[in-house]
Amino acid sequence: MQAVVPLPRHLYAVSRYERYRNSLPNQLVTIRTFGIDYRPESGISFKLEYRDGTHNATLAPSGVLASIGVLF
Q1: Which of 33, 39, 52, 67 is the most exposed place for a label (fewest CB within 10 A)?
Q2: Measured distance CA(48)–CA(71) in Å, rounded
Q3: What's the rounded Cα separation, in Å, for the pair 44 and 61?
Q4: Strands, E assignment, the chain
Q5: Residue 59 pLDDT level (bands cut at 50, 70, 90)
């Protein structure tokens, strides 16, 4: 599930909640992500996110992520 809230000055707040079931070992993985997205122009995106969860070390480790996206 994901929610995006527009903020002033081309900023967006992003929150995401994910659940997965691993087969080996048999665990339920929960991942929560909170971030901010800056879009100065259409097609350009700068993202900064923090990801955390339970039993998520192998699937998606906790930590800070940054990315740049360009649509062309």
Answers
A1: 67
A2: 18
A3: 26
A4: 2-7, 11-22, 27-38, 44-54, 63-70
A5: confident
